[in-house]
Amino acid sequence: MKTATFFIRTIIGLLLVFVSVAYFFNLMPDLASTGDFKAFQLGLISSVYLMPMVKTIELLCGISYLTGQYVALSNLIVLPVSTNILFINFFLNPNGIPLALFVFLGNLFLIYVHWKNYKSLFTRKSIKQFD
């Protein structure tokens, strides 16, 4: 289990760091897109702040995965990002589904591995403290 955890954490960390660095330094050409996917991309670009924020989150979580520090926190922070990656590829760009599935399922696997860190969030005792 430790080997699988290390492997998945490292691969996802490398992917997140590579994609975010490529975005910030314009290392990859823009993908040719059409239809709804192109409209969605134009909306993201038009928002001005959204893509830099997402890529910063990806970079920080990728570094966290590679260093092994704050992995439990990074799992939760990157979960909405990996969910959106999956949905975008599922509904708008079917070519990217295999990689999106790997990132999403890998994120879920890492959450499962670190579940003991999240358990207290779902107990009645922790909820009662805030009443």
Question: What is the general shape?
Answer: globular
Strand residue content: under 5%
Please write the string of helix (H) and strand (E) elements: HHHHHHH
Q: How many domains in all?
A: 1
- Rg computed from alpha carbons, rounded to a whole number of angstroms: 17 Å
Percent of residues in helices comes to: over 70%
What does this structure look like?
With 131 residues, this protein is mainly alpha-helical. The protein has one domain. Helix content is 76%, strand content 0%. It has seven helices and no strands. α1 packs antiparallel against α3, α1 (2-24) packs across α5 (97-113) and α4 runs antiparallel to α5 (97-113). The longest helix has 23 residues, at 2-24. It is globular and about 50 Å long. 19% of the residues are buried. The mean pLDDT is 91. This is DoxX family protein. Keywords: Membrane, Transmembrane, Transmembrane helix. The chain crosses the membrane at residues 7-27, 39-63, 70-91, 97-115.
Features:
mainly alpha; globular; 76% helix; membrane; transmembrane; transmembrane helix; DoxX family protein; single chain; 131 residues; 0% strand
